[in-house]
Design goal:
- It is a single chain.
- It is built from one helix and seven strands; from the N terminus they run αβββββββ.
- By secondary structure, the protein is mainly beta.
- It has one domain (about 10-85).
Length: about 80
């Protein structure tokens, strides 16, 4: 078993990440903020709750799934990458 940090992200940061994102031009998913967590809502309305490893690196507890928020130098969010380890 290994330890992953759970960094607290301010609601203002999570609000910047919230929105709709297109994956493979076929699917649209949403990232929403609920109770201080970032949640991915899939097209079938299933939900995945992320914990923060850093301001831009997220993970799902108990699963081998990570996300990385992609940002420009000016801080504008351009998307995110999902990785299954």
């Amino acid at each position: 078993m290994f330890y992953q940090p759970n960094v607290h992200l301010e609601p203002a940061i999570l609000d910047v990440y919230s929105g709709k994102y297109t994956i493979n031009s076929m699917y649209t998913v949403s990232l929403v903020q609920e109770q201080g967590k970032l949640i991915l809502v899939a097209p079938d309305n299933s939900r995945i709750t992320f914990n923060a490893e850093s301001e831009v690196d997220l993970y799902v507890s108990g699963q081998f799934l990570k996300a990385h928020i992609e940002k420009k130098l000016d801080g504008e969010v351009t998307g995110f990458t999902l990785r299954q380890l």
